[in-house]
Amino acid sequence: MNENEQAPETKLTSTKRRWAQAGKFLTGRIARPETDRLPPGQRLVKNWPVLDLGQQPHLILETWRLDVTGLVENPLSLDWNAFQALPQSDSSSDIHCVTSWSRFDNRWHGVLTRDLLDHVMPRSEAAYVMLTSYDGYSTNLPLADFAAEDAILATSWEGEPITRSHGGPMRLVVPHLYFWKSAKWLRRIDLRAADSAGFWERNGYHMRGDPWREERYSGD
Ligand SMILES: Nc1nc2c(c(=O)[nH]1)N[C@H]1C(S)=C(S)[C@@H](COP(=O)(O)O)O[C@H]1N2
Ligand SMILES: [Mo]
Questions:
Q1: CA of 17 to the centre of ligand 1 (A)
Q2: Ligand 1 close to Cβ of residue 215 (< 6 A)
Q3: CB-ligand 1 contact for 183 (6 Å cutoff)
Q4: Residue 11 Cα, ligand 1 centroid: separation in angstroms?
């Protein structure tokens, strides 16, 4: 086909085009000056604390799965090999926990949420994501935040596989929101039209959780 000819528009190409256009609005964060790197009310730590509900699942790669469901053109149920076959990327980012510690410069490796979304192709009605984990944890966030350019389904940290206590073999990292949105031991990503509260959000935490706006609790 020469460049003046147009391929006929199929359902697939129109969906891909619409998603690519929607991507223009998913611009991630506004670039911040270095002086604004530590959000208000946070203090820096050098170690990496472990926080969870106290049930750290023992997952084995042979039976591990990740499902992507809801308002998507191509629902997926990936086993470990299929997940590893997705494009792999590196991303460096800071952690901000609502309990007021932050940790700078964490080097992650895994699958960018954008690359996963390119595969499943969200429908136009999809606006929120509900994450569910192997320990029964859940958390919700806007699709635009989930699709931020530095959000990653991480399998390694500082060149080593993510330990079980930090959510291995795979955890989400959404650096521009408080860390409770970054589900460890992630099992399911469900795209929805409406927002509903996950575990901590039902227990008083903020529906969005932007550290620079100190969106810690639902009244903030
Ligand atoms: N599956 C799961 N993910 C979770 C949690 C949890 O209890 N279960 N806790 C959240 C909270 S409150 C925080 S602060 C971070 C802590 O991650 P870390 O233990 O790797 O520091 O994980 C988040 N993701
Ligand atoms: Mo947390």
A1: 35
A2: no
A3: yes
A4: 39
Q: Which fold has domain 11-213?
A: Sulfite Oxidase; Chain A, domain 2 (3.90.420)
CB-neighbour burial class of residue 194 (10 A; exposed 0-12, middle 13-18, buried 19+): exposed
Residue-level pLDDT, tens digit, the chain, 220 residues:
454 455 555 655 556 555 655 554 454 455 678 889 999 999 999 999 999 999 999 999 999 999 999 999 999 999 999 999 999 999 999 999 999 999 999 999 999 999 999 999 999 999 999 999 999 999 999 999 999 999 999 999 999 999 999 999 999 999 999 999 999 999 999 999 999 999 999 999 999 999 999 999 998 8
| CA–CA distance, 99 with 103 (Å, rounded to integer) | 12
Contact between 89 and 152 under an 8 Å Cβ cutoff? The reply is yes
pTM for the whole thing? 0.91
Neighbours of ion ligand 2 (CB under 5 A): 51, 97, 180
User: What are the residue ranges spanned by the domains of the chain?
Assistant: 11-213
